[in-house]
Amino acid sequence: MIKIRSTTVLGIIHEGKVALGADGQATMGNTIAKSNVRKVRKLYGGKILAGFAGSTADAFTLIERFEEKLNAYGGNMKRAAIELAKDWRTDRFLRKLEAMLIVANETEILIISGTGDVLEPDNQIAAIGSGSMYAQSAATALKKHASHLTAEQLVQEGLNIAADICIYTNHNIIIETL
Asked: Catalytic: 7?
Protein backbone atom coordinates (compact mmCIF):
# COMPACT_ATOMS: atom_id res chain seq x y z
CA MET A 1 0.00 0.00 0.00
CA ILE A 2 1.40 3.40 -1.00
CA LYS A 3 1.34 5.98 1.77
CA ILE A 4 0.15 9.51 1.29
CA ARG A 5 2.74 11.96 2.56
CA SER A 6 2.96 15.69 2.92
CA THR A 7 6.13 17.71 3.28
CA THR A 8 7.79 20.96 4.32
CA VAL A 9 6.79 23.02 7.35
CA LEU A 10 8.79 26.00 8.66
CA GLY A 11 8.25 28.08 11.78
CA ILE A 12 10.11 31.14 13.04
CA ILE A 13 9.93 33.48 15.99
CA HIS A 14 11.47 36.79 15.00
CA GLU A 15 11.25 40.18 16.69
CA GLY A 16 8.31 39.19 18.89
CA LYS A 17 6.25 37.67 16.07
CA VAL A 18 5.74 34.04 15.15
CA ALA A 19 4.99 32.65 11.71
CA LEU A 20 4.36 29.04 10.74
CA GLY A 21 3.96 28.01 7.14
CA ALA A 22 3.82 24.96 4.93
CA ASP A 23 3.62 24.06 1.30
CA GLY A 24 0.49 22.37 0.02
CA GLN A 25 1.84 19.23 -1.61
CA ALA A 26 0.89 15.70 -0.60
CA THR A 27 2.46 12.84 -2.50
CA MET A 28 1.40 9.26 -2.95
CA GLY A 29 4.54 7.33 -3.74
CA ASN A 30 6.20 9.40 -6.45
CA THR A 31 3.00 11.09 -7.63
CA ILE A 32 1.46 14.37 -6.48
CA ALA A 33 -1.84 13.37 -4.90
CA LYS A 34 -2.97 16.87 -3.93
CA SER A 35 -1.34 20.27 -4.32
CA ASN A 36 -3.26 22.39 -1.80
CA VAL A 37 -3.31 20.56 1.55
CA ARG A 38 -3.66 22.93 4.51
CA LYS A 39 -0.93 21.81 6.94
CA VAL A 40 -1.03 24.70 9.41
CA ARG A 41 -3.76 25.49 11.91
CA LYS A 42 -4.52 27.95 14.67
CA LEU A 43 -5.47 26.21 17.90
CA TYR A 44 -6.63 27.15 21.37
CA GLY A 45 -8.57 30.23 20.39
CA GLY A 46 -5.93 31.42 17.93
CA LYS A 47 -3.14 31.51 20.55
CA ILE A 48 -1.15 28.52 19.29
CA LEU A 49 -0.05 27.47 15.82
CA ALA A 50 0.43 23.86 14.74
CA GLY A 51 1.82 22.43 11.52
CA PHE A 52 2.44 18.88 10.37
CA ALA A 53 4.53 16.82 8.00
CA GLY A 54 4.21 13.13 7.29
CA SER A 55 1.19 10.95 6.74
CA THR A 56 -1.79 13.29 6.48
CA ALA A 57 -4.34 11.14 8.31
CA ASP A 58 -1.82 10.43 11.07
CA ALA A 59 -1.04 14.12 11.42
CA PHE A 60 -4.71 15.05 11.76
CA THR A 61 -5.03 12.49 14.56
CA LEU A 62 -2.00 13.98 16.32
CA ILE A 63 -3.25 17.54 16.00
CA GLU A 64 -6.58 16.48 17.52
CA ARG A 65 -4.75 14.79 20.40
CA PHE A 66 -2.53 17.84 20.89
CA GLU A 67 -5.59 20.08 21.02
CA GLU A 68 -7.10 17.78 23.68
CA LYS A 69 -3.89 18.09 25.70
CA LEU A 70 -3.95 21.88 25.34
CA ASN A 71 -7.46 21.96 26.74
CA ALA A 72 -6.53 19.57 29.56
CA TYR A 73 -3.52 21.70 30.59
CA GLY A 74 -5.09 25.15 30.27
CA GLY A 75 -3.23 26.13 27.10
CA ASN A 76 0.22 25.31 28.51
CA MET A 77 1.83 24.45 25.18
CA LYS A 78 5.03 22.88 26.48
CA ARG A 79 3.19 20.67 28.97
CA ALA A 80 0.68 19.63 26.31
CA ALA A 81 3.54 18.79 23.92
CA ILE A 82 5.35 16.68 26.54
CA GLU A 83 2.19 14.80 27.44
CA LEU A 84 1.40 14.15 23.77
CA ALA A 85 4.95 12.91 23.17
CA LYS A 86 4.68 10.54 26.14
CA ASP A 87 1.37 9.15 24.88
CA TRP A 88 2.69 8.95 21.33
CA ARG A 89 5.71 6.92 22.40
CA THR A 90 3.86 4.52 24.71
CA ASP A 91 0.36 4.08 23.26
CA ARG A 92 0.08 1.05 20.94
CA PHE A 93 -2.16 2.89 18.47
CA LEU A 94 -0.36 6.23 18.47
CA ARG A 95 3.09 4.60 18.25
CA LYS A 96 2.29 3.56 14.67
CA LEU A 97 1.51 7.11 13.51
CA GLU A 98 4.00 8.53 11.02
CA ALA A 99 4.07 12.31 11.25
CA MET A 100 5.78 15.17 13.06
CA LEU A 101 4.43 18.41 14.45
CA ILE A 102 5.69 21.93 14.96
CA VAL A 103 3.77 23.94 17.54
CA ALA A 104 4.38 27.56 18.45
CA ASN A 105 3.07 30.39 20.54
CA GLU A 106 4.42 33.93 20.78
CA THR A 107 7.41 32.92 22.92
CA GLU A 108 8.30 29.29 22.10
CA ILE A 109 8.48 26.95 19.17
CA LEU A 110 8.65 23.16 19.56
CA ILE A 111 9.11 20.10 17.37
CA ILE A 112 7.22 17.00 18.54
CA SER A 113 8.13 13.55 17.23
CA GLY A 114 6.85 10.02 17.71
CA THR A 115 10.03 8.94 19.44
CA GLY A 116 9.08 10.98 22.49
CA ASP A 117 11.13 14.02 21.54
CA VAL A 118 9.99 17.55 22.30
CA LEU A 119 12.71 19.79 20.88
CA GLU A 120 13.08 23.52 21.29
CA PRO A 121 15.26 24.37 18.28
CA ASP A 122 18.15 26.80 18.21
CA ASN A 123 17.60 30.30 16.84
CA GLN A 124 13.82 29.89 17.21
CA ILE A 125 13.64 28.29 13.76
CA ALA A 126 11.95 24.91 13.36
CA ALA A 127 11.54 22.86 10.20
CA ILE A 128 10.15 19.39 9.48
CA GLY A 129 9.43 17.35 6.38
CA SER A 130 11.35 16.38 3.28
CA GLY A 131 12.38 19.94 2.41
CA SER A 132 13.08 20.92 6.01
CA MET A 133 16.84 21.29 5.75
CA TYR A 134 16.56 23.52 2.68
CA ALA A 135 13.92 25.70 4.36
CA GLN A 136 15.79 25.85 7.66
CA SER A 137 19.09 26.71 6.00
CA ALA A 138 17.51 29.49 3.98
CA ALA A 139 15.62 30.87 6.98
CA THR A 140 18.73 30.79 9.17
CA ALA A 141 20.75 32.73 6.61
CA LEU A 142 17.95 35.22 6.01
CA LYS A 143 17.35 35.77 9.72
CA LYS A 144 21.07 36.44 10.19
CA HIS A 145 21.70 38.60 7.13
CA ALA A 146 18.29 40.10 6.34
CA SER A 147 16.94 40.72 9.81
CA HIS A 148 14.77 43.56 8.49
CA LEU A 149 12.39 40.92 7.07
CA THR A 150 9.32 40.00 9.13
CA ALA A 151 8.78 36.52 10.54
CA GLU A 152 6.17 35.92 7.83
CA GLN A 153 8.57 37.03 5.08
CA LEU A 154 11.32 34.77 6.46
CA VAL A 155 8.97 31.77 6.39
CA GLN A 156 7.73 32.65 2.89
CA GLU A 157 11.24 32.93 1.47
CA GLY A 158 12.51 29.83 3.27
CA LEU A 159 9.64 27.75 1.91
CA ASN A 160 10.05 29.22 -1.58
CA ILE A 161 13.71 28.21 -1.61
CA ALA A 162 12.81 24.70 -0.39
CA ALA A 163 10.15 24.45 -3.12
CA ASP A 164 12.75 25.39 -5.74
CA ILE A 165 14.98 22.50 -4.62
CA CYS A 166 12.83 19.74 -3.07
CA ILE A 167 10.61 17.75 -5.44
CA TYR A 168 8.18 16.99 -2.58
CA THR A 169 7.57 20.69 -1.81
CA ASN A 170 5.48 23.07 -3.91
CA HIS A 171 4.85 26.81 -4.04
CA ASN A 172 1.25 26.62 -2.71
CA ILE A 173 2.30 28.10 0.61
CA ILE A 174 -0.01 28.90 3.51
CA ILE A 175 1.33 30.90 6.46
CA GLU A 176 -0.34 31.63 9.78
CA THR A 177 0.98 34.27 12.19
CA LEU A 178 0.58 35.36 15.79
From this structure: yes
